[in-house]
Every structure is written in structure tokens, then in C-alpha cells.
Design goal:
Structural class: alpha+beta
Shape: globular
Number of helices: 5
Organism: Cecembia rubra
Radius of gyration: 22 Å
Protein name: Lipoprotein
Distance between the termini: 55 Å
Number of domains: 1
């Protein structure tokens, strides 16, 4: 009788576990998941980033391209951990700095983090707030990459970002702090955003 009761308990636990899995499988997918799956399934390959930089280029080609832009006064070395500095023309007309420096996997560029700031920012000036900067950066990115950015957020909306996915190219935009907007461009053929989030948390 003891063995029989034990088997029934195990069967009940297994049944409850299967039901839980089924419920999880039936959960509606987020907009992000649906768009990502659709874009990856399309087979569309997008490698263009900006300023002649692209996914898949090697370190040597990256440095050569940046050096050419440097000679022409387009890029400079910035006092920032993302070492390359660019001054984009923002939709607002305000002066802004963009710093970037990529990561490579097997000598192929797959991840491009960028950080934007207003050099004229100072506390209390709403015209140079991170909210205004976010609007400006999104406007610039829409000029570069077109419409299609959508907002993703956690349940209480304490953390949010704007995302655009074109084939394998993912772009994520969010407020890093009071003075900085961070943009991340990721080649989904190499890594997923969840892997990059784990790297950020471990850093």
C-alpha cells in the first residue's frame, strides 16, 4: 500500500508539472519575441551600421575605416571608455557627442554599443534632459534606419527601451543615466539579447 501511495504521489506531481509546462507554452508571446522570430525567419540579412561600418568586418578593416574618417575630420579619439567620438547632426540641431567601440567574435564585428550625450547638459535645464536626448537620438536613428521602433518594458515600467529589428540586426535604445542615452546594435546571427544582458549583469 505504501508503494502504491508513493506512485500516486509521483504521478500527481508529474501531472502538475506537465500542466505547468503546458500553461507556460500557452502564454502569449511578447511583441518583441514575435517580431524577432518573424524577422529571423524572413532570412533577411542586414549588416550596415553607420559610417561605412558593418557587421562581419574584421578588426583591421574596422581600424582602417575609422582611420580614414579620422583623417577627414569625421571621427576623433574621445575621452570615453568607448574610444571613438563622432558628432552627428541631431534632428533638434543641438550639439551632441556619440561615442562607440565594437566587440568582435572570431575577428568579426557583431556588437556595436554607442553612447550619446549633450556636452551642454547641466542640472535643471530641461532642454538638455535625458528625455529630450532620448527623443533626439530616436529621431536620428529613424533618419538612419527608418521607422519601426517599439517600446518594451518590465511589468512596473520602471525599466524600458525602444527596439527595432531588421532581419538579423537588432537596435536597442535606452536611458543609461541622467546624461546618457545608450544604443546597442547586435547581430542576432551571433548572439541573442539575453546573452548580452547576462554579460552586462556580470560586468
Amino acid at each position: 500500500m505504501y508503494i502504491l501511495r508513493f506512485d500516486k504521489m509521483n504521478s500527481s506531481k508529474m501531472l502538475m508539472g506537465l500542466m505547468s509546462l503546458m500553461l507556460l507554452a500557452c502564454q502569449p508571446k511578447s511583441e518583441y519575441q514575435r517580431i524577432k522570430e518573424k524577422e529571423l525567419a524572413s532570412g533577411k540579412m542586414v549588416e550596415e551600421l553607420f559610417l561605412d561600418l558593418r557587421f562581419g568586418m574584421g578588426r583591421k578593416e574596422f581600424f582602417t575605416t575609422c582611420w580614414e574618417h579620422n583623417k577627414n575630420g569625421v571621427l576623433t579619439n574621445g575621452a570615453h571608455y568607448l574610444q571613438v567620438q563622432y558628432k552627428p547632426v541631431m534632428p533638434s540641431g543641438k550639439d551632441a557627442l556619440m561615442h562607440f567601440y565594437p566587440q568582435f567574435e572570431d575577428n568579426k564585428l557583431y556588437y556595436m554599443p554607442m553612447e550619446f550625450s549633450y556636452p551642454n547638459w547641466f542640472p535643471g535645464n530641461e532642454e538638455y534632459s535625458n528625455e529630450k536626448l532620448l527623443e533626439d537620438v530616436l529621431g536620428l536613428l529613424k533618419e538612419w534606419y527608418g521607422e519601426g521602433f517599439f517600446e518594451v518594458a518590465n511589468r512596473d515600467r520602471s525599466v524600458s527601451a525602444f527596439v527595432k529589428i531588421d532581419g538579423n540586426r537588432l537596435i536597442r535604445v535606452f536611458k543609461k543615466n541622467l546624461t546618457t542615452i545608450r544604443v546597442e546594435m547586435l547581430d542576432l546571427r551571433v548572439k541573442d539579447l539575453s546573452e548580452m544582458n547576462k554579460n552586462d549583469e556580470a560586468a
